[in-house]
Amino acid sequence: MSALVVVAAALVAGPQASSGSPVGSLDPLCERHPTSCPDPSSRQDYEGGYVGHDEPALLFYSDRSGSGNSNTWQLRLPREAPTLPRQDGTGGTWNFQRSVAFWFGMDLCETQSYPNPGVPCTPDSDTNIKDSSDHTAPDWMGNHVGTGFLELQFYPPGWVPEPNVSCDPTRWCAAMVVFGLSATRTQVNNADCLNRAGEEWADFAFITRSGRPQAPPDPLGATAATFTPDPAQVLYMDAGDTLQISVHDSAAGLVNSISDLTSGQSGSMTASVANGFAHPLFQPSAATCTQEPYAFHPMYATSSEHTIVPWTAHTYNVSFSDEIGHFEYCDRANVQGSCVNPGVGETKKDADDTACFNAGDSLLAPVGGCIATDRDFDGTSYQPDWSGTLADPAQDRLVHSASFQFTSPRTNGRNYSRMAFEVDMPAIEPLSVCALDGTGCVNPPPGAQFYPIYSTRSGPSGGCAWQEGGTFIPGTTNTFGGTSAAEYGPTLATYYPGDPGFPEGTFVDNFRNVLAGNPCPSNGRLP
């Protein structure tokens, strides 16, 4: 769903914000920069602008109580290729060129969010499940309580500095980001809230070593400092580090914690009132936007096909996703952030050549590029430039950055019993090609020369981990058919109760492949 590309675009395409000035009042996080936020089912913002980005994801299911609100993972951060990227495309391909972020997700209570703001939500409870399309049924989706979504996002190093893409030339950082939607089935929030926070809004806080936000995280109070990492406070992590990650509820609010098992450092963030988390009140007739302090808690007790956010294109609860399709070479950008001279792979300037930077803006990798949504699928994410796309492992490692590796989640020491592959390609393919009913939708998407797949690996001491890229990653044990079409499966028709910008109905926004079991159970550590 997202990345700090959110503020990247703010600085090249929107009003400038100095430290201490409210970013939210000038540049709504999600409305102007949808690449950082979940895709709503309408595929557009309240002004009718296109919203969408590409998120190949893994979904994890369990009927064990606690699986929907408490889990642990291990993650190994990827190392970059030893070859620097080059402007002509002949060098290495680094992580920031393939994805602007990857993240761990969970559904949350959000009582000022779609579809019924103002209705109380009981946290950590499957009584919240409502996914029927029958208006007369007690579990009709239109009766669902307001829902938010967590993304624990990790940002790659080496390119344009925050508040744009990278925290550091060589080190990774992470942030807790919580999203909500200020709408009902028939109306959106007042104009002041839409202008200052956006229809889709976010609370944002870097993971810090103290567990306290470095600046206000709330939608109306956020400043430029909110999105600019302070090395004295933010948890920085090196490529190759092994991390222990926990996502769990607490009395104060949802907790995201990271223990760096390699460096010995740790960091956390709690979505609590004490930490300044808040949400805009849904008051459509008000002249002024108002928000209130709010502690975010998980929505459900379990995780399944029924534990959903009713306003997002994806169908996940407990999940891992990569955020791809946000880099295209640009040989020269102007001061407005538009690409004047398109780079390799493009013969002419097109509509997605925005949010662009020159090579001189980079912290390390000397290339210029654009990070708007790659709507014609011709950028680096859709080329065979991923780990495991060359059969020669030495050559592959020389020019392709390694993949992340992560375990399946565990809840209270137990594995999730099932999982699914899901990707929202139909939601981002042009409607002229891919109709709302799924007719014409293709995998890989039109224009793509390659599409990454998830695969598994094991080690000599046992255990299992997930990775992403091509089929030739050394140590691979299962490629799930070896193609994106085989892995992500058939189109999925999903019911949506409708909103002011989109009709009620059943539409195809995803390809999904639900497996009967968990092919990569975790023993609690990476192989």
Write structural notes for this entry.
This protein is mostly beta strands. The protein folds into 2 domains: 5-77 and 89-327 and 384-515, no CATH class; 328-370, no CATH class. Helices cover 7% and strands 27% of the residues. It is built from 7 helices and 26 strands. The chain has helices at residues 5-13, 23-26, 95-98, 191-196, 393-399, 425-428, 484-488, and strands at 57-61, 70-76, 99-109, 147-155, 171-181, 200-206, 237-238, 242-248, 255-260, 266-270, 278-280, 291-293, 319-324, 328-333, 339-342, 356-357, 369-370, 405-406, 410-411, 414-415, 418-423, 453-458, 464-469, 476-478, 491-496, 505-515. Strands 1, 3, 4, 5, 6, 7, 13, 21, 25 and 26 form a 10-stranded antiparallel beta sheet that branches. A 5-stranded antiparallel beta sheet has the order 10-9-8-2-18, with no helix packed on it. Strands 15-14-17-16 form a 4-stranded antiparallel beta sheet, with no helix packed on it. A hairpin with a 2-residue loop joins strand 19 and strand 20 (414-415). The chain starts with a helix and ends in a 12-residue tail after the last strand. Residues 1-26 have low confidence and may be disordered.
